[in-house]
């Protein structure tokens, strides 16, 4: 039953994240059709990445990894968890207000730091304008991340997982309105960013109040508990900063090649689908679960939670990675190949996607292994590991740029991710039973890998068989759907036959996930 509850949590978050990614694909398809991979797209992607970069730096990563275990502990112990959350919320709001104002003033410097290659042409001024409009998003989405952490800590996953759907819905609506009204598309997209942030914050505010937390205004103050929170979070903030430096290096490398920022961004969006659905779901559910188990001294239950998170991740991530490598070109061509999009855009984006896909299992395993450390308030070692990963990323991206061009940025990202996972895995060996593989995981791991490879061979053959249909405007969507469904059938059938996973367990977890959705949604 505990296994079903844990997987149900993964599925609840994963299914909502999947819906968000579906709307995200609609957004990207429209953007590719309206703008293609040109200077306006490059400028918007850089401008949009700025608030998202600092969001991960401040809120979703470091702060939440420190905040969630403390809040969950207070809530379970019957202490005044809401008072702690209110201090953190309004303190963060004050800090973000000052930071956002300074960033808007310093936007030319931030754009140059993100994409120095833009200084050679008109993309720089566009990126500065778009960035100043979009940057206030960090204020809203960082507070959303804190409220989401509160809901996740008390086992209410649906509202927090559903909030990102609003962002992509606002984007889609904005592009349709801009097309019909003749508004400048890049500027309209930039204004859609803070509007979406307001919508998400309102949604989570209502959800938190329905969960029983009033969160009334409190004058920001530095309490002893917030000082403790800052001490725990500081190394993780630095680690998050290192990760963002990796992204900065990639953007810088790409900015010196025309359209490369767009190619990498579109490829990033595609591999972010399985990463978001699996990685975010596991990370969101696993951290509070591990925190509870380890705090209770139940190493066996902690081991179970860790192994089921690992198993669920490999079950979905390995076939996704194989598929994105084998059929990268038809995926990009069918999804984006219309309007301003060109064949050169397809080939460049598909190459980047295949390279990113090689690192996809590492990106997700990172989400599984990190909670082992943060559940124990160990934020120093992940920071040291991130520094090593940063050096690898910079060396590969900058060193290979003269040889590989913009592709060096994607290769560096994937290699650095595997280096990070290797360090996290090696460091976890001294954590006791909770970090060890159990018998079920050892038995299923190689079977999942084999099933994914067999599926890859089937996809390769189906791609050859459907090659003519994949270039026909009226049939290519059906052909791509046939590829995906065919690969899925092979994977599930072969995987079930060799014992890679249990379909009955998945069905039971899905039923539980659906059954728990209404009360959580009301939360």
Explain the overall architecture.
α5 runs parallel beside α8. It contains 18 helices and no strands. By secondary structure, it is mostly helical. It has one domain. The C terminus is likely disordered. 84% of the residues lie in helices and 0% in strands.
Helix and strand arrangement:
Blueprint: H1 2-35, H2 39-76, H3 81-105, H4 107-114, H5 123-134, H6 137-153, H7 158-181, H8 185-210, H9 224-255, H10 260-295, H11 299-326, H12 328-336, H13 343-374, H14 380-404, H15 407-427, H16 439-465, H17 476-498, H18 503-522
Q: What is the percent of helical residues?
A: over 70%
What global shape is seen? globular
Number of strands: 0
Spans of at least 5 consecutive residues whose pLDDT stays below 50 are: 512-523
Query: How many separate structural domains?
Result: 1
Distance between the termini: 24 Å
Sheet-strand content, in percent, reads under 5%
Q: Provide mean pLDDT, rounded.
A: 81
The count of helical stretches stands at 18
> Rg, please?
22 Å
Largest sheet: none
Helix-strand topology string:
HHHHHHHHHHHHHHHHHH
Structural class, from secondary structure content?
mainly alpha
